[in-house]
Amino acid sequence: MRFFKNRRLPQIVILLLILVITPLSAEAKKRFGEFKRGAGSIEFTHYKPFKKQPINLLYYIPTKGNVRNMQVIISMPGSQRVGKTQIDAWEPLAEKHGFVVLVPEMMQNKGYRKNSYRFGFVSRSLKNGEFKLRPRQKWTFQLIEEIFDYYVSETNSKVKQYDLFGQSAGAQFVERFVMTMHDARYRRAIASNAGQYTYPDPSGLHHPDGTLCDHPGWPHSVSDTPFANKEHLRKVFKRDFVIHIGTKDRQDLLVRDKLTDTIGGTKFKYNFFHIMGATRYDRAHHFYNYSKRIAEELGLEFNWRLVENIGVGHGAIGAIYGRANVPKITKKDGTMTYDINAATDHSVFHLLIDENHTKKRSRKQK
């Protein structure tokens, strides 16, 4: 009898394992919905106002760990709207540190043109003095909230907030998102290497001599928009927003855009780009200092920061890692990936992940 039991024991164990593993696998499949572990993409058409303008949503979900508790970063690409560069940069960091990355590709051939992407399609027009507010549910910015809701629903995630990052044109998206979506569920937003900004000045963008620029309102300032009232700006300035700029991002944009004048000329003196500055580096500092002054004049709490990405120029990889030339290493399967140990303390990774983990540890110690 004992011999019979011993011979049957392995078979019984195997049968029990099959019974246990099978429902768990089905449950895992149900829990992640359209998402799976690792890198992938889905066609996002789940928000009715933009159903006919599908978004290719790239993502990376770590291959191990509790997905339901993982921090979520929504990462906005630059002017080409291609998300692969950012996914490739984030992937090794996400896998090592256990966070999820979502990269929405809002392509121009799907109807996401300049006004729709950089300016959120908040106004029907970008022409001087022609601000025409569209319903909020039709703003491109609203898609970020909807994408987050969809991810949470599909994965049964417990997270209540997301982090938002954008580089170049994506940074313009993020900055205006912050300026208009004061009640959005982002924890921290980072605009890295933006080429232009919308200033939180209720009276319009001004030259240092006090004269209004030649296009003082939207999209260069919040003047004559619903975003100009003090209560709205109170909520905007109170949010966790980082202006992130490479110290070598110093291409002369005035020369590039043919906005230079003869020596001593005044043709472009009150042009909004001249007021912002010549380079992205200049413009980041001007925008931050100008915004801080407005907050002080209005007597409002100001929680924004400016962080210099030392020795780095223009580009998403340099922004994410905080390094000009990020080294690559060979993985076990022979493919190349970025060296996660290369990230610096002025990188977007550090600002979103390291600082967040430090804050959580500090709370536990208390």
Write the layout of secondary structure elements.
Layout: H1 2-32, E1 38-44, E2 55-61, E3 71-76, H2 84-97, E4 99-105, H3 114-117, H4 142-155, E5 162-167, H5 169-180, E6 186-192, H6 230-238, E7 241-246, H7 253-256, H8 272-276, H9 280-298, E8 305-309, H10 316-321, E9 328-330, E10 336-338, H11 348-365
Parallel strand pairs: 3-4, 3-5, 5-6, 6-7, 7-8
Antiparallel strand pairs: 1-2, 2-4, 9-10
Q: What would the keywords be for this entry?
A:
366 residues, alpha/beta, Rossmann fold, eight-stranded mixed beta sheet, two-stranded antiparallel sheet, 11 helices, 37% helix, globular, disordered N terminus
What does this structure look like?
By secondary structure, the protein is of the alpha/beta class. It has 2 domains: 1-32; 37-365, Rossmann fold (3-Layer(aba) Sandwich). The chain has 11 helices and 10 strands. An 8-stranded mixed β-sheet has the order 1-2-4-3-5-6-7-8, sandwiched between helices. A two-stranded antiparallel sheet has the order 9-10.
What is the name of the CATH class of the largest domain?
Answer: Alpha Beta
In the CATH hierarchy, the third-tier topology of the largest domain is known as Rossmann fold
Rg value: 24 Å
Strand content: 15-25%
Order of helices and strands: HEEEHEHHEHEHEHHHEHEEH
CATH architectural grouping of the largest domain: 3-Layer(aba) Sandwich
CATH superfamily of the largest domain: Alpha/Beta hydrolase fold, catalytic domain
Could you estimate the helical fraction of the residues in percent?
Answer: 25-40%
What is the topology, as strand order, of the major beta sheet?
1-2-4-3-5-6-7-8
